[in-house]
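Hey,
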Amino acid sequence: MALGTLDRTPPPFFKQGPSAFTRLMFFSSLAIFLMVADVRFKVTQPMRAVVATVLHPVQQAMLVPAQLWEQAGYYLTGLDEARRSQTQAERLVAAQAERMMRVSQLEQENARLRDLLELRPRVQVATLSAEVLYDAPDPYTRKVVIERGSKQGVALGSPVVDEHGVLGQVTRLYPLTAEVTLVTDRDAAVPVLNARTQQRGVAYGVPQTSGMELRFMAGNADVQAGDMLQTSGLDGVYPPGLPVARVTSVDRRADSAFARISLTPLARPDHPRHVLVLQPVALQMPALQPELAASVAERASQASQPVSAAVPGPTATSGAAP
């Protein structure tokens, strides 16, 4: 055999590639770069949307056995629950007949007072019913996934409520589904109003206890156990008057200027099934009229100019006061 025909390449056993440390550093740097890019620039959001859309039929197919099992259980217990609900509904109708007549009279008086004061009626909030599919797979957050997405009209930041009160807010939106952050999540914050004292505050989620906490309240604040907290409507997201939580305990510590106030959410974050998605209030606010917007812009430009340039002469001080 001629020497030129011999294969002089080294066998695979002796081939040398990048070292294990080099590969570790490369893939670690790549992972850190992708995490920073996702958090700061949202580069993976389109990919997340595509993957969620592609996997949606698979998720639906995997949920079929669980739905069939739940429907079988509901069928067996549905008759007794329907009878109890009918009896309770009849009692409530009989008890609230007189109250409904008084509410109708109060509504008429309220309408006349609004006409006298030339007040605009309250903004009507659009709603959309949805069903909870499953809990989010992240064990460090309190989130659920609903069966409505951007194609059904759900907006990012939409409030979500159940039959008892505020449940959470839409924080991630896909074409066919949406991710809802519950009020008990550590990143959840809801502006609230004490129904008894009309004092405003902010309720934060406490995932460790599946509850909430009213933070940054002075130690001598008028807050008592049993107070009802409602949405204040000042954030432009939640409509005013929605029940949020009830005060369970107030700890006025001597070593701190703030009281530790524990809350129990009125909604049931651990057992949601059917929810209602509300459109954010800011999206339904009427736009400023052109004349009013021009007047506001003119006043803002005048306020930004120096006082001597806006009103010359000795009347500059009096002209700057407004």
